[in-house]
């Protein structure tokens, strides 16, 4: 029997399992029994072991990410698990493989993938915007309704089905209850520094927002050899932990009320930062990051996602004089090939992962996990299935 119909010696069939479902915008997660269909051609069904709680999942639930406002939906895009079964024409995966689902998949056939200029894939973009599989449907159902899958992943489920172009096989030595963070947060921040901005040794850097992605950016700046890494946050309780990731200086905007914060930073740094990274996802802090970069060569990299209804206004003359602004998606990593390498770096003690994890929850506690996130009481929380 081919792998398309057999998994671990058993015929592939519909699986009933639990998932965290959002039925309507702004509602809390509801733990439901759902049905997960067998994978179709070029699809893989994965038994999830863990999933990270990312702020993007909260944004989906709250309707901030307009392209993903499709309900009912199973959020989650930062997971790790084990292949349970594969569909027809799947050649790179087999039952038992340890894997990480990818919201930034690679078809390797579209113009974007073949260009060599971007890590964005046209096919993956359509999947993300459709919040479903390539064919526009989902393999997840509940109470007779199709469940959309955030970023075509839907990792807040004990089982999920993803396209084979959106999956990375990793070392079976990696602890699946931890490396789920390599599915989003860590590469996004880390790659912003080492890939997108290409921080040079001896540089002065600043990171706005010392959450998981921000600290990953700090880690990337340190890895690249920055001489100064400033952590910018309104919560000074985060500063001690940030030193562990590589921060050398700190600044709290609330300590300088009555003054333009960017002017304060220009004074403190005697001219501005070589590189700034906005990881808070706020228009106001994006502007601070731009305005406190060196006017002749400062580069600002936007990492956080702001609301889709706001624009970032900048002075054209600033850009003419030498400042530059860019962004990064998944840390500018080619996910299919890079995620396994990042896992190997972690196994070789070259990449911090464990230190990001401050809390673990069971699936039925997922609302508690997001409540903690909203209060700022955690760095990164993980659900263990």
TrEMBL record:
<keyword id="KW-0862">Zinc</keyword>
<keyword id="KW-0560">Oxidoreductase</keyword>
<dbReference type="InterPro" id="IPR002328">
    <property type="entry name" value="ADH_Zn_CS"/>
</dbReference>
<keyword id="KW-0479">Metal-binding</keyword>
<dbReference type="InterPro" id="IPR020843">
    <property type="entry name" value="ER"/>
</dbReference>
<keyword id="KW-0520">NAD</keyword>
<dbReference type="GO" id="GO:0008270">
    <property type="term" value="F:zinc ion binding"/>
</dbReference>
<dbReference type="GO" id="GO:0051903">
    <property type="term" value="F:S-(hydroxymethyl)glutathione dehydrogenase [NAD(P)+] activity"/>
</dbReference>
<dbReference type="InterPro" id="IPR013149">
    <property type="entry name" value="ADH-like_C"/>
</dbReference>
<dbReference type="InterPro" id="IPR013154">
    <property type="entry name" value="ADH-like_N"/>
</dbReference>
<comment type="similarity">
    <text>Belongs to the zinc-containing alcohol dehydrogenase family.</text>
</comment>
<dbReference type="InterPro" id="IPR036291">
    <property type="entry name" value="NAD(P)-bd_dom_sf"/>
</dbReference>
<dbReference type="GO" id="GO:0005829">
    <property type="term" value="C:cytosol"/>
</dbReference>
<dbReference type="GO" id="GO:0046294">
    <property type="term" value="P:formaldehyde catabolic process"/>
</dbReference>
<dbReference type="Pfam" id="PF08240">
    <property type="entry name" value="ADH_N"/>
</dbReference>
<dbReference type="InterPro" id="IPR011032">
    <property type="entry name" value="GroES-like_sf"/>
</dbReference>
<protein>
    <recommendedName>
        <fullName>Enoyl reductase (ER) domain-containing protein</fullName>
    </recommendedName>
</protein>
<feature type="domain" description="Enoyl reductase (ER)">
    <location>
        <begin position="24"/>
        <end position="384"/>
    </location>
</feature>
<dbReference type="Pfam" id="PF00107">
    <property type="entry name" value="ADH_zinc_N"/>
</dbReference>
């Amino acid at each position: 029997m081919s792998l398309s119909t057999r998994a671990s010696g058993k015929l592939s069939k519909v699986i009933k399992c639990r998932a965290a479902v959002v039925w309507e915008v702004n509602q809390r997660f509801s733990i439901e029994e759902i049905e997960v269909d067998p994978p179709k051609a070029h699809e893989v069904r994965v038994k999830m072991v863990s999933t990270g709680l990312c702020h993007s999942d909260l944004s989906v639930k709250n309707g901030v990410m307009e392209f993903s406002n499709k309900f009912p939906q199973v959020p989650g895009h930062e997971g790790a698990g084990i292949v349970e079964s594969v569909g027809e024409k799947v050649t790179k995966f087999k039952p038992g493989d340890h894997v990480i689902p990818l919201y930034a998949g690679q078809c390797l056939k579209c113009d974007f993938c073949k260009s060599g200029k971007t890590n964005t894939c046209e096919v993956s973009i359509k999947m993300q915007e459709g919040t479903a599989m390539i064919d526009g449907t989902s393999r997840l159902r509940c109470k007779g309704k199709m469940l959309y899958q955030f970023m075509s992943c839907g990792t807040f489920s004990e089982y999920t089905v993803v396209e084979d172009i959106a999956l990375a096989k990793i070392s079976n030595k990696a602890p699946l209850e931890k490396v789920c963070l390599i599915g989003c947060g860590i590469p996004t921040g880390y790659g912003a520094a080492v890939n997108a901005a290409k921080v040079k040794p001896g540089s002065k850097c600043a990171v706005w927002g010392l959450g998981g992605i921000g600290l990953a950016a700090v880690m990337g700046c340190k890895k690249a050899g920055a001489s100064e890494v400033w952590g910018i946050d309104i919560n000074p309780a985060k500063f001690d932990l940030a030193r562990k990731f590589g921060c050398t200086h700190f600044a709290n905007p609330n300590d300088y009320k009555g003054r333009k914060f960017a002017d304060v930073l220009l004074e403190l740094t005697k001219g501005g930062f070589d590189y700034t990274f906005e990881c808070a996802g706020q228009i106001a802090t994006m502007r601070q990051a731009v305005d406190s970069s060196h006017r002749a060569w400062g580069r600002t990299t936007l990492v956080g996602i702001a609301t889709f209804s706001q624009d970032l206004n900048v002075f054209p003359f600033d850009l003419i004089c030498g400042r530059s602004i860019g962004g990064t998606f998944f840390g500018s990593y080619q996910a299919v090939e890079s995620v396994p390498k990042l896992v190997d770096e972690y196994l070789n003690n070259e990449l911090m992962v464990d230190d990001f994890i401050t809390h673990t929850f069971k699936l039925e506690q997922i609302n508690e996990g997001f409540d903690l996130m909203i209060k700022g009481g955690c760095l990164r929380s993980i659900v263990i299935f």
